[in-house]
Structure formats: C-alpha cells, structure tokens
Amino acid sequence: MRQAHGVGAVRAGDAAAGAGLPGDPLMLRAAHGLARTCALLLDGTYGSRVVLLVGSGGNGGDALHAGAALALRGARVDALLLTDRPHAGGLAALRAAGGRAGSDAAVLDDADLVIDGIVGIGGRGGLREDAARLVAHAEATAATLVAVDVPSGVDAGTGEVPGAAVHADVTVTFGALKPGLLVDPGAGCAGVVELVDLGPAFDAALGAPEVEALEAADVAALLPAPTAESDKYRRGVVGVAAGSDAYTGAAVLAVGGALRAGAGMVRYSGPDLPTALVRRRWPEAVVGEGRVQAHVVGPGLGTDDAGLVRLRRVLGDGLPAVVDADGLTLLAGEPPLGGPLVLTPHAGEAARLLGADRADVEARRLEHAQRAARAYDAVVLLKGSTTVVAAPDGRVRVNATGTPWLATAGSGDVLSGVVGALLGGGLDPFDAASAGAWLHGAAGRLASGDEDGTGLAGGPVVAEDLLDALPRVRRDLA
Ligand SMILES: NC(=O)C1=CN([C@@H]2O[C@H](COP(=O)(O)OP(=O)(O)OC[C@H]3O[C@@H](n4cnc5c(N)ncnc54)[C@H](O)[C@@H]3O)[C@@H](O)[C@H]2O)[C@@H](O)CC1
Ligand SMILES: [K+]
Q1: Is 416 labelled a binding residue?
Q2: Within this chain, do residues 253 and 270 fall inside the same structural domain, yes or no?
Q3: Model confidence pTM above 0.90
C-alpha cells in the first residue's frame, strides 16, 4: 500500500525529527537523498552542468545543499535565485563547495539537470510570473528536471494546480508521499516519484495517512478466491439492471464485467432487446429477477420514468449496489435510497450530483469526491485521469493503474460490472470500489500495451478488450 500524508502531518514529522536544529541535520539528510538521485540521473557528476531554481523557503535550502553536494563531486553548479532572502546555510554551503549564485537565466541553456527548489509544502497559489518564465525556459531545454519534494505550483495537500507549475521528470520527496503527488492534476506534474527516508522519529509522528493507493499485493489479498467449498452462490450473485432499447451495449458490457471479474452468477433484468443481446453474448447469465448479493444499476438505463422505476425497485431491497451513469442522473434528485452504495461518476456526473461546476470537479478532485461521499452517504468512485475513491467516513484511495486509452465508450459499463462482482463477493464498498478500479485500470494497460500508464506507449482499446484482459490480470495477481 502506498500512503500519502498531508502537509500538517509532514510538519509534525519534521518537528519530531528535529527540523530547525542548529546545522539543519534534517535538511542535510533530505538534501543528500536528493543529491544521490541527481547523481544517478546524471550518470556521473564530474563535469556535468546543474542549475538550481531557488525560492525563499526550506525547499530552496534543500536545493542549495544538494547543489553543494554535487559541486563537491565535480559538477558545475549555478543557482538562479528567485528571492533576495535565500536559505542562508544552503547558500553558504553551495559557495563553499565552489558553486555560484546569480540571476542570468542563460545558464539554463546548456544545463544537463535542473533542480526545482522554488517552493515545497509551503507553496501557495500557482507559480509567480518570474518563476513561471524560468520554468518554461528550463522545460524547453534538454535538461532533466528534478522537483524537490513537490513540483512547484502543485498544492502538496490536494493535487490542485491553480496556475503555472513545474512538469518534472522526477520528484524527490521527503519523509512521506504527499496527496498532491498521487492526485491529478498534480500527479501528472510529478513524473517518477522517489521517496527519501527521514527516519523513525519522523515516521512515528505522521499518524494515519490521508490518501492510500492499493498495490498489486493489496489487491491480491482483498480479492475473494474460490475454495473447494465454493459454489456459484457463495462466490456471489450479482443482479445487473442496465441497458434499454436505446442503449443495449451497456447491458452486455456490465454483465461481462461482472462475469469476467469472477462473479459466481449474474442475473440480468431489462427490456426485451438488451435481454436478447445479453442472452446471445453471455449464455451463462440468468435472465430475470431473483436472489442476489449485490446489484449493478444504471448503465444505459435511460433517465425517463421507466428508468426511475427500475432504479427504485433495485435499490429498495437494501442490498449493496453500484450506481452508475443514468442511475446517477436519476439519483441526483432522490432522497437517499437503499443499502450501502458505490457511486461511480465521471466529473460531469459528479458535478450534477453536487450541483457543482464540472471544471471545478476536475480541478479539485479530492475535495469533490469527499463532498459527494458525505452528501450521499456512499462510497464515491470519481473516474478520471486519476480515479479517486472516497468513503463517507473520510478515507480516500486513489488508483494508480489505468491508462488514458481507457477513456473510451463502454469502459465505465465494464467497471460497474467489475465493482458489482466484488461487492457480491463480499468486499465492503470501499474495498470493492478501490480494488475494482485497480483491476479495471490494469486490464486497460494490459489490453492497450501501455505498460507504464502514460498513454505514450500502447494503442487504442475498446471495452470488449477489457473483458478479455480481466481474467489475465486476475491470473497474474495470483
Ligand atoms: N523543516 C525542515 O527541516 C525540512 C524542510 N524541508 C523542505 O522545506 C520545505 C518546506 O519549507 P518552507 O516551510 O520554508 O516552505 P517552502 O520552501 O515550500 O516555501 C515557502 C516560501 O515560499 C514562499 N511562497 C509561497 N508560495 C509561493 C509561490 N507561489 N511563489 C513563490 N513563493 C512562494 C513563501 O512566502 C515562503 O517564504 C519542504 O517542502 C522541504 O522541501 C526538507 O528539507 C525536510 C526538512
Ligand atoms: K519544488
């Protein structure tokens, strides 16, 4: 499990580990970790050219001390000072090591590596104009860009990017991951994230994480595995109420998602046309209502009265349910209904649920997912470039699998089926939603050939491809 801690927790960790002691031992520890990563990236420091972008706070101090360490190993180090009050100890160390400080941006032109020490966890608002200009200059060169602690311009606590920001190749972060490194749009600015250990006193002061991200081993441990005693009922029966005469594909894909994610059985109920198509594609699905352990309701349901009647009927029995797509539109005006719910909105649907603006939801994903979870007393899985899963009790997970290739028609229908299968298999709604997002993202990567999830590699996927990839993802986990 990867865990991120908020700015308050990190400040507490710093204090417990001796921040501000004479000689700045904690900062030196951080700076040495930073310098080590930079030396590896440079593939030999001797004769290499390093430029530091230095702001007024501790973040600039880290950059200056790391610059000093690199200068002692033979690098030519120039600091560009964005402040007239740079960290005094750091500047003295850089000068003593033979580094220089100035303000001529031309040094960027032949830099091999640029270190962004403009702001860290103390940053507020986007980059200011002078800093933004220097960053744009640095990004236009061939130099590797390393952010100190967080890319400057990214809000460390939330991942918001209110203005211009650094787009780093690597971020070296200290003591703990920050939520802004896991949640988009900030996460998209961080590049590869390296964590420098600040020791047990720091760790002990952190408390509970604000944001978690499941890893493969966590998902493997959560997933219900069939045993010799299992039968289809114990593995979980999922009821799928999806699709209409206008939207038939949603029914086929949601049923497929549930089956391929390991449901013991799927019961499909819907109008004649989608029913006929479900029967043809999935002869193993049972048509009609009956006993189930969880529901999937909403994809392709339609938003007319018939859809509302189906939604109410399904949610009326108080069983756990995944509500997606048209189900969310219908739910937006409804009093809280039924049992434990997982809502799976994209940003537009979340905006409708909250009466908010779509662009605001995209910009502040963490806040809006948490608000929706509280407002609907449900687990909310906010889809997007990083999927955020929020529980009404305040817990948050983000999903680190996935690929931009997943933004394709029908992909969400498959996801709702996958989460439904996990709910039916007995996972609680928070685990079902976060493990479901993980499996769905991993299936997307596998199907597209986009191994690192950047979208730069791989190619298009269609929703059917996800269905084929799901059992392979499950096998690889085992
Ligand atoms: N306290 C410590 O001992 C340690 C601190 N560390 C480093 O120190 C950082 C925190 O230091 P600080 O609390 O000084 O905060 P920062 O260095 O993040 O920045 C705060 C300074 O930047 C200015 N500022 C805020 N927003 C700005 C913006 N948008 N544009 C330009 N200037 C802006 C503020 O006026 C303030 O002077 C961490 O992120 C980490 O890099 C690490 O060295 C670990 C140890
Ligand atoms: K920074």
Answers
A1: no
A2: yes
A3: yes
Domain boundary among 183, 213, 243: 213
Q: What is the CATH number of the domain that holds 138?
A: 3.40.50.10260
Q: Of 157, 189, 213, which residue is a domain's last?
A: 213
Instruction: State in Å: Cα 344 to ligand 1 middle.
Output: 37
Nearest ligand atom owner, CA of 25 = 1
CA of 119 to the centre of ligand 1 (A): 5
- Ligand closest to 34 (CA) is 1
Residue 243 labelled as part of a binding site: no
Let me know if 312 is exposed, middle or buried by CB neighbors in 10 A (0-12, 13-18, 19+): middle
Q: Do residues 136 and 271 share a domain?
A: no
Provide the pLDDT confidence category of residue 336 given band limits of 50, 70 and 90.
low
Query: Which CATH number is 240's domain given?
Result: 3.40.1190.20
Is the shortest distance between the CB of 26 and ligand 1 below 6 Å? yes
Q: Give the distance (Å) from ligand 1 centre to CA of residue 62.
A: 9
Report the C-alpha gap between 446 and 469 in whole angstroms: 7
Determine the atom of ligand 1 nearest the C-alpha atom of 175: 44
| Count of CB atoms situated within 10 Å of the CB of 72 | 16
Kindly state whether residues 60 and 105 are assigned to the same domain: yes
| Same structural domain, 204 and 326 | no
User: Is the CB–ligand 1 distance for residue 27 below 6 Å?
Assistant: yes
Question: CB of 11 closer than 6 A to ligand 1?
Answer: no
The first and second tokens of residue 26, run together, are 């904690």
Question: Do 281 and 242 share a structural domain?
Answer: yes
Measured distance CA(38)–CA(48) in Å, rounded: 11
How many domains does the structure of the chain reveal? 2
Report which residue type is found at 197: D
- Tell me: ipTM over 0.95: yes
276 CA to centre of ligand 1 in angstroms: 62
Instruction: Name the residue range of residue 82's domain.
Output: 2-213
Annotated binding-site residue? 325: no
Q: Say if residue 297 is in the same domain as residue 350.
A: yes
pLDDT number for residue 456: 85
Cβ neighbours for 228, distance < 8 A, ≥ 6 positions apart: none
pLDDT (tens digit per residue) in 222-276: 998 888 877 777 789 999 999 999 999 999 999 999 999 999 999 999 999 999 9
The count of other CB atoms within 10 Å of the CB of residue 5 is: 24
Indicate whether 104 and 123 sit together in one domain: yes
* Helix/strand/coil for 208: coil
